[in-house]
């Protein structure tokens, strides 16, 4: 069963959007378990009843937060696909997009790795994380295959590993140091897999 239920294309109520925005900011900057529902409700300026009408408790809000993160990465791939159909260009656009994301947006690590650390046991959150990671890996493998890379599965796995490391490393060592190292190393992975 897939837990990813994209809200893309669906207009969110203002209260739902405020709750999701507040939760996204707080969960990412402070951690999921350290932020209580009351704090999210206060930050969103809604009532407790509104919160529970919009989301099935805190876990529902956590799932919506991670679905939003998933959707943003999928949109990065969609933007790259709209810009070019050449798989080599697409891979370069994806690398550049991830490099920019490391610099500008995900400055406190990977939201999926962070959430996995807080949800170590099987359940809907871990299922959503696994679905996201499998989509990411499979999409990179499709691009690597289309680009004619040798062992596309290995190339994709290497790029996923690099992104994971860069998001965590950017938080620890600084984005300006890590983002260009990610891009350079990712290009090296692609070069090593060219036939």
From the N-terminal CA to the C-terminal CA, the straight-line distance is 38 Å
- Low-confidence segments, ≥5 residues, pLDDT <50? 1-6
- CATH architecture level-2 label of the largest domain: Orthogonal Bundle
What is the helix tally?
Answer: 9
Helices and strands, in order, run as: HHHHHHHHH
Mean pLDDT: 92
Kindly provide the radius of gyration, computed on alpha-carbon positions and rounded to a whole number of angstroms.
18 Å
Number of domains: 2
What is the CATH topology assignment of the largest domain? Tetracycline Repressor, domain 2
* The CATH homology group name of the largest domain: Tetracycline Repressor, domain 2
Total count of strands? 0
Helix proportion of residues, in percent? over 70%
Give the overall shape: elongated
| Main sheet record | none
**Class by alpha and beta content:** mainly alpha
User: Any idea of the CATH class of the largest domain?
Assistant: Mainly Alpha
Give the strand content.
Answer: under 5%
Describe this structure in words.
The protein has helices at 14-30, 37-44, 48-54, 57-83, 87-104, 111-118, 124-146, 152-173, 175-192. It has 195 residues and is mostly helical. The protein is elongated. The chain starts with 13 loop residues before the first helix and ends with a helix. The model is unreliable at 1-6 (pLDDT under 50).
């Amino acid at each position: 069963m897939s837990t990813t239920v994209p809200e893309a294309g669906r207009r969110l109520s203002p209260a739902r959007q405020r709750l999701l925005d507040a939760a996204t900011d707080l969960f990412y900057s402070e951690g999921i378990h350290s932020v209580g529902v009351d704090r999210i409700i206060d930050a969103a300026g809604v009532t407790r009843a509104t919160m529970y009408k919009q989301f099935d408790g805190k876990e529902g809000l956590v799932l919506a937060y991670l679905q939003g993160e998933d959707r943003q990465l999928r949109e990065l791939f969609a933007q790259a696909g709209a810009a070019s159909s050449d798989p080599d260009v697409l891979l370069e656009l994806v690398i550049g997009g991830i490099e920019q994301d490391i610099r500008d947006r995900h400055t406190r690590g990977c939201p999926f790795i962070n959430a996995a650390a807080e949800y170590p046991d099987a359940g809907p959150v871990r299922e959503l994380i696994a679905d996201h990671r499998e989509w990411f890996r499979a999409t990179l493998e499709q691009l690597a295959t289309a680009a004619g890379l040798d062992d596309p599965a290995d190339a994709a796995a290497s790029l996923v590993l690099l992104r994971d490391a860069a998001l965590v490393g950017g938080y620890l060592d600084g984005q300006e140091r890590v983002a260009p190292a990610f891009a350079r190393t990712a290009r090296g992975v692609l070069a090593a897999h060219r036939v």
